[in-house]
Amino acid sequence: MSGSETRPTAHGVLPADTTQDVRTRAADLSRQVAILPVGSFEQHGPFLPLATDTLVACAIARRIADAYPVHLLPPVTISCSHEHAAWPGTVSISSVTLHSVVRDIADSLRRSGVEALVVVNGHGGNYVLGNVVQESSARGERIALFPAVEDWETALERAGVRSTLLTDMHAGEIETSILLHTHPEMVRAGYEDADHVADDRRHLLTVGMSAYTESGVIGRPSLGSAEKGKELLDSLTASFAPYFSLLTSQDGRLPESGRA
């Protein structure tokens, strides 16, 4: 299933759709699905930009929009990055504000006829997005959070990523690989020898990232490569298929193949 036939080229991270593009794409669908990338604006060490999480979320969302007939939205670029407050340049909003922003977007979409929403989260600290999805689903609304941990684990295996999700917490192999593939001009020198591992982070929410890393890096960016970045995105795009099927199904129930 492909949405590429009617998908205009994006300008940077912004979709280039017109209202007619959205209307035309929706004509053949029983239920429209919107894709909302949510990133952050926070430190990613000395070699990745503050906008890394937004760029990653947009890369995933763009690949989904190229493969499925979905309504691609512009990103939410500032979110809950409070654990990174020790580094200059980091900007946060409260979890209450982020919750309200996503809820308002979902409500607005439904008023315009887009009944389902997928939130593509690029920042692990946006815990509140899980609550948004839980609460909305309990009200009977069609909403999902992507990628799940299982989707990332499948992607890591397919891409040959050597770091685990525990070790690769921030500015490590995964994020460096995706940016080397999608935005190599934004990856500065220094990632090759910036590895720092801190697997025991049980007090992170209390003391913040600065208690575990001086550079802001927790992971092994030296292992990153553009090839791994491409494979990660290829895998995540394939993993989106059951989400699309679930959100566009008539009864909103998991198929037998998708049940544990």
Keywords:
single chain, 260 residues, alpha/beta, 4-stranded parallel β-sheet, 9 helices
Describe this structure in words.
The structure is a single chain. This protein is an alpha/beta fold and 260 residues long. It is built from 9 helices and 4 strands; from the N terminus they run H-E-H-E-H-E-H-E-H-H-H-H-H. A 4-stranded parallel beta sheet has the order 2-1-3-4, sandwiched between helices. Strand 1, helix 2 and strand 2 form a beta-alpha-beta unit. The longest helix is centred in the middle third of the chain and has 17 residues. It is globular. The model has no long low-confidence stretch (mean pLDDT 93).
Number of strands: 4
User: Could you tell me the radius of gyration in angstroms?
Assistant: 18 Å
Please report the number of helical segments.
9
**Beta fraction:** 5-15%
Largest sheet: spatial strand order: 2-1-3-4
Structural class: alpha/beta
Q: What kind of oligomer do you see?
A: single chain
Specify the helix fraction band. 25-40%
Largest sheet: 4 strands, parallel
Along the chain, the helix and strand elements come as HEHEHEHEHHHHH
> What is the average of the pLDDT values?
93
**pLDDT < 50 stretches:** none
Which descriptor suits the 3D outline? Answer: globular
How far the N terminus sits from the C terminus, by CA atoms, comes to 25 Å
